[in-house]
């Protein structure tokens, strides 16, 4: 079987609800003489993705998806599409699809992790279908069939953030990751308000998004303990490059420290381990460059005695399915897997697949791992056409 073509479909999904849940969330705030970090975003709420289609000479095809996020990944939809259509995809045409690590190594340039992740997913979907096995089986075997779900809660007032958690609890969500990273005392008040609202049995992890100095991160952790918030993790408290600062925080506090922006691919993961900068490594398929690299990061964490979190990267049903397959195959991860996209737009899948991978969740707060070969899902082409970005004149 030979790869015949690698093509893309850019999609742009307007959001019916904005990710930020109160009027002042996500805006600039000043403290200690400096501005809080602001993620660049379009004036209107919208998410963008690039679907990847790989066709073979035997009629078997694979579907993948690359997230476009200038704020986190630094990669726009237009740049991802050009990278795949004009540079990466053509290098795979005429090759056999079976040895995915070798194919990904062939296109493993330093940048374009999102573009590579889309190709990686499509290759795994294709090979799984050709062999009649799930992607989880390709990755080493399915170890679980249901995956607990966590939702990110955007920054805002303590009451707004707590109310957002309660709203999701009504849809059977049992784990949350509030966004913090401003003034430690105010962030601790946010966490305390959330804990008071959700009760003792709900999982709470927090994401500082590089917003603290080491001293501020230590202050936040101590306040969280004083308020008995039950904070399970603090994600990326310091700048991505400040591994010594991360290590300082880790040594000073009892709350586990998680590396996200400090841990894109396997080489970053090894650097975090060497620096003693984190207890937990955050794996996102888009930033890792695909499932093959994601599994490498998980192996590095296991060898170092660290844990893993599978983080939010947004996505349609293709990406949701891929994350579920990864969660099924990985030996271990901590807490729930982040699926914030479930609260933002539909999966764009066919029939009951769309319903199974949507809110509300079942009472156990989990999503089922899709069954069947490959990723186990098929896109609804009519839904995709409705959100496909028109070709530029």
Key features?
globular; 393 residues; three-stranded antiparallel sheet; TIM Barrel; Enolase-like, domain 1
What's a quick, concise take on this entry?
The protein has helices spanning 77-88, 100-106, 113-131, 135-138, 158-169, 184-198, 214-226, 243-252, 266-275, 285-288, 291-304, 317-329, 351-356, 381-387; strands at residues 3-14, 30-31, 34-35, 46-56, 61-68, 146-153, 175-178, 203-207, 231-235, 257-259, 280-283, 307-310, 337-338, 366-368. The chain is of the alpha/beta class and 393 residues long. 51% of the residues are buried.
Description:
The chain is an alpha/beta fold. The protein folds into two domains: about 5-130 and about 380-385, Enolase-like, domain 1 (2-Layer Sandwich), CATH 3.30.390.10; about 140-370, Enolase-like C-terminal domain (TIM Barrel), CATH 3.20.20. The chain is built from 14 helices and 14 strands. It has helices spanning about 75-90, 100-105, 115-130, 135-140, 160-170, 185-200, 215-225, 245-250, 265-275, 285-290, 290-305, 315-330, 350-355, 380-385, and strands spanning about 5-15, 30, 35, 45-55, 60-70, 145-155, 175-180, 205, 230-235, 255-260, 280-285, 305-310, 335-340, 365-370. Strands 6, 7, 8, 9, 10, 11, 12, 13 and 14 form a nine-stranded mixed β-sheet that branches. A hairpin with a 4-residue loop joins strand 4 and strand 5. Helix 1 (about 75-90) crosses helix 3 (about 115-130), helix 7 packs parallel to helix 8 and helix 9 runs parallel beside helix 11 (about 290-305). It is globular and about 65 Å long. It starts with a strand and ends in a 6-residue tail after the last helix.
